[in-house]
Amino acid sequence: MTAAASISRSRSNKRTAPVTVIPEVRQPNFDLADDVPKYWWDNDPAKTLLLAAMSASFPAGERFFIDSVRHYQSQITDPELQKAIRGFIGQEAHHSKEHQALNGYLEDKGIGLARLDREVLAFMNWMRKNLSPERQLAHTVAVEHFTALMAEEFLLKYDALEEMDPRMAPIWAWHAIEESEHKAVAFDVYKAIGGSEFVRVTEMMAVSILFPVFTSIHLAQLMKEDGQLFNIKSWAGAVKYMWGKPGVFRKLLPSYFKYYSPNFHPWNHDARHLVEKAKKKWLEAIISKKV
Questions:
Q1: In the chain, where do the E strands start and end?
Q2: 8 - beta bridge partners?
Q3: Regarding beta strands 26-28 and 287-290, do their DSSP bridges make them parallel or antiparallel, or are they unpaired?
Q4: Shortest CA distance to 65 belongs to which of 88, 44, 45?
């Protein structure tokens, strides 16, 4: 069943919004050959290590997201949302697995991600111990909004994938497609269990600090370890790309701020046209079978 074919709609806040997309669980087959260059995105250290730093956070982060949603799974009575939860869990489990493999591959190329992975895992465990289940789910909802926007407007809309080595690009295309497909699942679970708007909004405020700070620190650490910390050309190019021209991060801000509206729903930002285009271009060669 495709995501586009499995959208159900309900009326809320005087608008009609798609509220349930059944994520499709795929088993990808990636070719990470030994001759993939170390700087596989645009032959640029800062760009490449930015995505490497993000990849380091995925295995522990995806497992946390699964646990936060699964905690409330038994309380969900809507059969369509139950299907969406199972698809969400399946997709995130594969993301964790594939990025664990990617991180090991990048380690072998001299990019030190193991320490970053341990730091992220320690933080996830701290949240498990110190945050309520509701706030843990709110954290997942907030991060899912971030990652979906980055997937849709950064990886799928602009030319980042075309600038990557053709063996590396399909990994990020697959992940971006699935981030878009399941972007509303945690949100819909949060709404279904009566999650607090105060908790939802304040957790996004916290994530809005933590996400860029941790990512920036990890990028700087990787650049230093790689002898690229004072590569001004690489830093300047990355900053220009993200905040200048085309300014992909800058252009995410309007959609980011919509999260704070009481009428927000992830599918109000509908990027299915980008996702369908990416599926046709990237998925056929890397999906061995569906589960």
A1: 8-12, 15-20, 26-28, 287-290
A2: 20
A3: antiparallel
A4: 88
pLDDT at position 20:
64
pLDDT band at 290 (very low <50, low <70, confident <90, very high): very low
Residue pair 98/31 in contact (Cβ under 8 Å)? The answer is no
Is residue 259 a contact partner of residue 145, using CB atoms and an 8 Å limit?
yes
Output Rg (C-alpha) for the chain, integer angstroms: 18
For residue 127, the number of C-alpha atoms closer than 13 Å in the C-beta half-sphere is: 24
pLDDT in tens, 67-90: 999 999 999 999 999 999 999 999
Give me the amino acid identity at 159.
Answer: D
Residue written as token pair 């139950």: 82
CB 266 within 8 A of CB 183: yes
What is the Cα–Cα distance from 272 to 181, expressed in whole angstroms? 8
Helices (H), 71-168: 79-108, 114-130, 133-149, 160-163
Q: Could you report the per-residue pLDDT of 77-125, keeping only the tens digit for each?
A: 999 999 999 999 999 999 999 999 999 999 998 999 999 999 999 999 9
Please report, as a single letter, which amino acid is at residue 27.
Answer: Q
264 backbone φψ class: left, alpha, beta (φ>0; ψ -120 to 50): beta
∠ CA(180), CA(184), CA(189), 5° rounding?
Answer: 150
Encoded amino acid at 171, one letter: I
Q: Quick one: pLDDT at residue 288?
A: 52
Distances (CA, A) of 98 to 27, 56, 75, 93: 10, 11, 30, 9
Given a contact cutoff of 8 angstroms between Cβ atoms, the answer to whether 25 and 291 are in contact is yes
